[in-house]
Amino acid sequence: MRERIGDLGGHSPDAAAIDGIREVLLMHLDDQWTEHLGLLQATRDGIHLRALGGQNPLDEFHTIALKEFDGFFDRAYAAAGEALRQDGDLDIQAALDAGRARRPSATWTYMVTDNPLGDASSRAAEALRAMWKGRSRR
After folding, report:
1. What DSSP letter does each residue of 77-126 carry, written as one string?
2. CA-wise closest residue to 31 among 96, 104, 88
3. Which of 81, 105, 114, 137 has a CA positioned 20 to 30 A from the CA of residue 6?
């Protein structure tokens, strides 16, 4: 990370510049993380439907999450670099001021056993039970 901060700040930034660049980078990492969590929330809201297609919702969620996370740090570094280099010049203070007004934060909890539709065998058993009850009423 230290090398990447040096890349963002030019050839040899001083300690104060490194601290400012680090803070800008953390703001953009937080932005990227918030965006990633929003996408995962949208995915999580419908992932249980994968069970109806015979897929394992947890495995599918994991696959989607990994695919979407690919390039996460590169996007954050690119966004921080753009924020720091307004009009081609390094302007740490302007990037910090712009980021402080909108700095997000997030805390999430994950449930990995949530399957409101049950597994395939429990759905089949329920269907058989419903068919059996329907026949016994006649």
Report:
1. HHHHHHHHEETTEE-HHHHHHHHHTT---------SS--TT--HHHHHHH
2. 104
3. 105
Could you tell me which residues come within 8 angstroms of residue 93 by beta carbon, excluding any fewer than 6 positions away?
Answer: 20
Residue range 15-72, pLDDT digits in tens: 777 777 888 888 888 889 989 999 999 999 999 888 888 899 999 999 999 999 999 9
pLDDT of residue 10: 58
Helices 2-9 + 15-46 axis angle, to 10: 110
Specify the pTM.
Answer: 0.60
What CA–CA distance (Å, rounded) separates 78 from 37?
Answer: 19
- Per the CB < 8 A criterion, the answer to whether 40 and 46 are in contact is no
Q: Which residues lie below 8 Å from residue 114, measured CB to CB, with a gap of 6+?
A: 48
Which helix (H) or strand (E) is 61 found in, with range? helix 57-69
Range of the domain at 94: 2-136
Alpha-carbon torsion, ordered 118, 66, 104, 77, to 10 deg: 180
Looking at the structure of the chain, the number of domains it has is 1
Both tokens of residue 75?
């996007």
**Residue for token digits 């660049």?**
21
